[in-house]
Structures are given as structure tokens and as C-alpha cells.
Specification:
The chain has 163 residues and is mostly beta strands. It is 7% helix and 53% strand. It has a single domain, classed as Porin (Beta Barrel). This is UPF0311 protein N4S67_14935.
Length: 163
């Protein structure tokens, strides 16, 4: 059997099956903009947050952040690292990569205190998790996708496991 024939056995999906894991509400310090030869860097440091959902609950600890790089194409490349402390005291390392594309006036609107509606921006991340605790080891075995909403000095994530 050729590989083309094997792939033909898979159903063609129009939507990925997903399970809602949690929502994460992250508070951020104001951006630290840094002009560089490779693009505009914007560093956002986490001041804390809340994790709530059917599969994970707890808090986001202060000190993590997003080291965003905005290229000449106007697309932001996300590089997030943070620590989650679960409701039962387990520490989980959280990382996410992704893409941010906001309307041309998006940064001005955020600076003015506006929330960028989900339908007007493209903010998608691919979170990964690490912990040695057996109760949460399953997190290191999932492919996750985050849909995000931007607000001034705040970002909300809705995180799903792709089944």
C-alpha cells in the first residue's frame, strides 16, 4: 500500500474535534517596545492571572511573559512562557507560540483602552505544558490550540485539546 492510499483512508475533516480544557485570564504590565534590526519587539511581563475550566484550574504566577516579535509584514510572532499553579498546588510550565494579526488601527485602539473583538483580530496560539506531577502529566501529551482576545494590558485565552 502506498502512503497516498493510506492517507485516503482518513476522513476529510471540515472541523477538528476539540475538548475545552480551560480559559486563562492574564494581566500584563504595559508593553516594553524595542526596535531591532529583525523587527519590533514588544515584551509583556505577566503580573498574574486566573486559570479556570473543566480540566484545569488555578492561577498564573507573576513573572512570565510574552516576547512578541512584529515583523515588517505586520504579523506578530508569539513567544509566551509562564508558570501555572493549579488549585491543588502543582506547578506547570506553560509555553505558547503563535500568530497575532490585528487591524491597522489595532494598537492605537488598545492604547486608547479598547478591547479588540475576536472577529476583528487573528490571535492563535499552540500551548504546550510540562510537569512531572502524575495528576497533570496528561497535559504533556496533548496538542492544544488557544484562541485569544486582546485588551489593554490583558489577554484572554480559551484553550482546547485537539482530539
Amino acid at each position: 500500500m502506498t502512503s497516498a492510499m493510506a492517507i485516503d483512508q482518513l476522513p476529510l475533516l471540515t472541523a477538528l474535534p476539540a475538548e475545552h480544557l480551560f480559559d486563562m485570564h492574564v494581566n500584563l504590565q504595559p508593553a516594553q517596545p524595542i526596535a531591532t534590526p529583525v523587527g519590533a519587539r514588544m515584551t509583556f511581563i505577566t503580573t498574574g492571572g486566573v486559570v479556570e475550566g473543566p480540566r484545569l484550574r488555578g492561577e498564573l504566577l507573576p513573572g512570565g511573559g510574552d516576547w512578541l516579535l512584529v515583523g515588517s509584514d505586520g504579523v506578530g510572532r508569539v513567544d509566551v512562557r509562564a508558570t501555572i499553579r493549579t488549585h491543588d498546588g502543582v506547578l506547570i510550565h506553560y509555553e505558547a507560540r503563535g500568530i497575532i494579526k490585528v487591524p491597522a488601527d489595532g494598537l492605537d485602539r488598545l492604547s486608547a483602552g479598547d478591547v479588540l473583538p475576536f472577529a476583528e483580530s487573528y490571535v492563535r496560539t499552540t500551548p504546550t505544558f510540562e510537569t512531572a506531577d502524575e495528576r497533570y502529566a496528561w497535559l504533556s501529551e496533548v496538542v492544544a490550540v488557544g484562541y485569544n482576545v486582546l485588551s489593554p494590558n490583558h489577554i484572554d485565552y480559551r484553550v482546547y485539546r485537539v482530539q
